[in-house]
Design brief:
By secondary structure, the protein is mostly helical. It has a single domain, classed as Four Helix Bundle (Hemerythrin (Met), subunit A), CATH 1.20.120. The protein has nine helices and two strands; from the N terminus they run αααααααββαα. Strands 1-2 form a two-stranded antiparallel sheet. α4 packs parallel to α7 and α4 runs antiparallel to α8.
Length: 225
């Protein structure tokens, strides 16, 4: 009789556990989502590398004016941003899912991808100001590549649903989530989209610097003159 009761208790616990598993939120970060981020991280990394190839230190340190960054400083800034996003996403991916916020973020990816072409200039926070962090362009590139590679490895290997974990850009009262706007809250997939768009913006900035009439000529050009 004692064993029969024990069996019954175990059976009921198993039924309860199965019912709880059935209540878990479905995975909403799809294979297509993962592959898109992987491809875009790889694409923008390659595009940046192409723009930097063959630049001299004189070219890397050239500034259009005293208010704008050099190419080396842009790469340093991108390295800092990728490190920041890596820390943010790896920490927040460990948080519990909160599916209620998905009604704000679902279907709003273009809000973040459009940032790549937004003509409005941004202002970096003090902790993303590059200063003179690296002594050479190669040092800046290697540091960026390391940070970007770690971010890519996370995306390739994580089993976390990045659509049900979130990051915030304002103080949040979860009792008043209906007041939140897209951008104030974003899922972690959208955080990655923001970083990709941010890289694209700065690639365009590098192209503009290289097209400036006072941009130093390459050594090859000098030798031909």
């Amino acid at each position: 009789m004692k064993y029969a009761k024990l069996f019954l208790v175990l059976l009921l616990l198993n039924i309860w556990a199965c019912s709880e598993i059935g209540k878990r939120d479905p995975i909403t970060w799809t294979k297509e989502d993962r592959n898109y981020i992987i491809n875009e991280l790889q694409r923008t990394t390659g595009a940046l590398e192409n723009e930097l190839e063959g630049l001299s230190e004189s070219q890397a340190n050239f500034k259009i004016d005293g208010q704008q960054w050099s190419i080396k400083q842009i790469v340093a800034h991108l390295e800092m941003q990728n490190q920041l996003h890596y820390r943010e996403i790896t920490v927040l991916s460990k948080a519990p899912s909160y599916a209620k916020l998905q009604k704000i973020t679902t279907g709003r990816d273009t809000y973040f991808t459009a940032y790549a072409d937004n003509p409005q200039s941004g202002t970096s926070q003090w902790y993303l100001e590059p200063g003179n962090k690296f002594s050479s362009l190669d040092d800046a590139w290697q540091a960026f590549y390391k940070a970007r590679t770690e971010l890519l490895l996370f995306v390739e290997n994580t089993d976390i649903d990045l659509r049900s974990r979130f990051t915030y850009r304002k103080q949040v009262d979860l009792k008043k989530i209906d007041r939140l706007k897209i951008g104030e809250v974003r899922d972690l997939h959208q955080l990655l989209l923001t970083g990709i768009a941010h890289t694209e913006r700065h690639i365009e900035q590098i192209k503009q610097i290289k097209d400036h009439p006072e941009f130093p000529p390459s050594l090859a050009s000098i030798s031909k003159e």
